[in-house]
Amino acid sequence: MNTQELLDRVSFTELDARSRAKKLLDEGTFSELLDPFERVTSPWLARQGIVTQADDGTVVAKGEIDGQPAVVLAIDGGFQGGSMGEVSAAKIAGSLELAAEDNRDGIPTRAVILFETGGVRLQEANLGLAAIAEIHAGIVDLRRYQPVIGITAGPIGCYGGMSIAAGLCSYLIGTREARLGLNGPAVIEQEAGILEFDSRDRPMIWSFTGCEQRHRTGLVDDYVRDDADAIRAVVIERFRAGRPTACRSERVTAFLERIKVIDAGKQATPEQAAAIYGKGFES
């Protein structure tokens, strides 16, 4: 990348959720559903003395990508760490369900989900978990018709139940800044001890759960620089490629075969993980 390209580059990570959605959609097609003026807030946070946000941390943007109907579901990592509550998760689940209905009616609506989330919102616990399960079902339904593309780009990364949602996507895109994992570093350290996982060791954390490593191990399909235009280009490329032959969740047998060769009695290393998972999951 030359100097002028660096100057022209727009960091996707530094954009807020609404701006990220606009960058992905074709110019002039952005339309927000249930925008902040609708005041669709969490009914639970205020009761616990927590300031709410008018969109509950989820932006639903409808428009076109590459001239085709699309919906972008962007999670705002700046609100409650991008955690999913009853309302924010329902906005995503409902949008996926409507996109699937569009396809059954002959309208080829596709979806992009921007994961900037630590998972379920603890203050809404079971309600959030139930809504995340609906997101999972919505992804599996829609991906029968159109690719569902997930993107994790920012430093919050993608964890908890939403990492399962990311794993269900037809394609997953990640940047150097992002991480992907079921449990966060602090949770692993709390449950397994600091010798197993030191949550203060940032290089170690990124070496295991950073998207560069996740790409090496086949859990992320595209490892892209933090550039809004570059990420949009990959999204378009993946949509044009169509549905994959098999999504990761349809390759259970192959994943189990990889797990069998892991020695749980020894401290894992990033190199070992890359060597084991880098063999692929075609079987």
TrEMBL record:
- Assigned keywords, A-Z: Transferase
Q: Which SUPFAM superfamilies match?
A: ClpP/crotonase
Which residues constitute the signal peptide according to the record?
none
Stretches assigned to the CoA carboxyltransferase N-terminal domain:
1-254
Domain of life of the native organism: Bacteria
Q: Check the record and name the PROSITE patterns matching this protein.
A: COA_CT_NTER (PS50980)
| Keyword Transferase annotated | yes
By its UniProt entry, which Pfam families does this protein fall under? Answer: Carboxyl_trans
What PANTHER family has UniProt attached to this entry?
Answer: ACETYL-COENZYME A CARBOXYLASE CARBOXYL TRANSFERASE SUBUNIT BETA, CHLOROPLASTIC, MALONATE DECARBOXYLASE BETA SUBUNIT
The protein here is known as Biotin-independent malonate decarboxylase subunit beta
- This protein's species is Paraburkholderia rhynchosiae
